[in-house]
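Sharing a chain and its predicted structure for anyone who wants a worked example. Both blocks are below, sequence first, C-alpha cells second.
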Amino acid sequence: MDKIKKILAPTDLSDLSLAGIRYALELARATKAEVTVYHVIGTEELMRYSHMGLLDDLVVKYAATLRRFLDVHCADLLPLVETRTKVELGTPENNIVEEAKKDGMDLIVISTHGRTGLSHILVGSVTEKVVRHAPCPVLSIHPEMPKKEAQKTAA
C-alpha cells in the first residue's frame, strides 16, 4: 500500500460534514499528508442565491464561508496540518470524483448523512455516488448521533 500523501475532504458546510473533515485532518496529522477541504456549490445553492449576481462573486463568498467554517470548527487542528481550501460550481458527486482524479488524491474522506428509506431514494447519496466512481479509496464517516437522539434510541 502506498503512503497517503493527499486527502480530499469534501464538505457541504453542514455540522454533519464536520466528522469527515476532522477525521481527514487527524489522519493527515498522523501520516503527514496534506488535506484539501472542498466545497461544491450545487444547483440547489445556485438557485437559492441566483439573485446575488455574478457566479465569481458567489465562489468568493463561499470560499470565505468555508474558511470561517474551518476556523470555527477546526482551529485546533489547522496549525498542525497542511490544508488547502477549494470552492467550485457544479454537481457535488461529479466534481468530487473529478477533483480527486485531477489532483491525484490518495484518499477521499467524506461524511455520510445517514439518510435511509424514502429520503435516501429521493435525495440520493453523494457519498454513495463518490464511492462508486472514485479513482482512489473512499473512507465514509458516519457522524456521531447527538446525545439526546442516542438516549431516545436506547430507551
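Comments welcome. The beta strands are 6-10, 34-41, 82-89, 107-111, 138-141.
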